[in-house]
Amino acid sequence: MTDLAQMKRHGDFWVSKLAVVVGDVQIAPECSIWHFVVLRGDVAPIRLGPRTVIQDGSILHCQVDQPLEIEGDVVIGHKAVVHCRRIGRGTLIGIGAIVLDGARIGRNCIIAAGSLIPPDANIPDGKVVMGIPGEIVRDVTAEDIHNIEHAASKYIELARQHAEGVFPRPF
Q1: What are phi and psi of 153, to 5 degrees?
Q2: Do strands 68-70 and 86-87 pair parallel, antiparallel, or not at all (unpaired)?
Q3: How many other C-beta atoms can be found within 10 angstroms of the C-beta atom of residue 52?
Q4: 51 within 8 A of 156, measured Cβ to Cβ
Q5: In the chain, what's the furthest Cα-to-Cα distance?
Q6: Which domains does the chain have, with CATH numbers?
Q7: What is the distance between the alpha carbons of residues 162 and 166, in angstroms, rounded to a whole number?
Q8: pTM above the 0.85 mark?
Q9: What is the average pLDDT value for the chain, to the nearest integer?
Q10: What is the pLDDT of residues 89-138, one digit of tens each?
Q11: Cβ neighbours of residue 165 under 8 Å, at least 6 residues apart?
Q12: How far apart are the first and last CA of the chain?
């Protein structure tokens, strides 16, 4: 794996200076790791697929010897806690959602803001989940998928602007 500082300089991805990344964490191209995010690959590896967005205040960790795999084009909302096994491509984890040990989330899913996915849950592809505990409420629509793709692309551009110093730190 390439050194994190070297990759940041080459522009493959962007990690806020206010984020914490420790342990065995692989970050694919065009990912953005925002302010106050914690990625702890200290007890098992964390793998982020291309164009993954992890918004401010989120925490990603995993159980001992159980790697966390996040496929590409995933958007993780502000203050989410992701402590599971897998999140499929094109999925949105909403603001403040919690995904617990051993859970597997399919592709093109939406885990609604504030939802709780219990340990070892298996969410099939293309489902919207809401509530505590999370329950499948409907299928994802084409409009949902478009909105997730749009959010991800906006964050890729915003990360480029941050990397270029468009938004310098005020202090």
Answers
A1: -65, -35
A2: parallel
A3: 26
A4: yes
A5: 46
A6: 4-163 (2.160.10.10)
A7: 6
A8: yes
A9: 92
A10: 999 999 999 999 999 999 999 999 999 999 999 999 999 999 999 999 99
A11: none
A12: 33
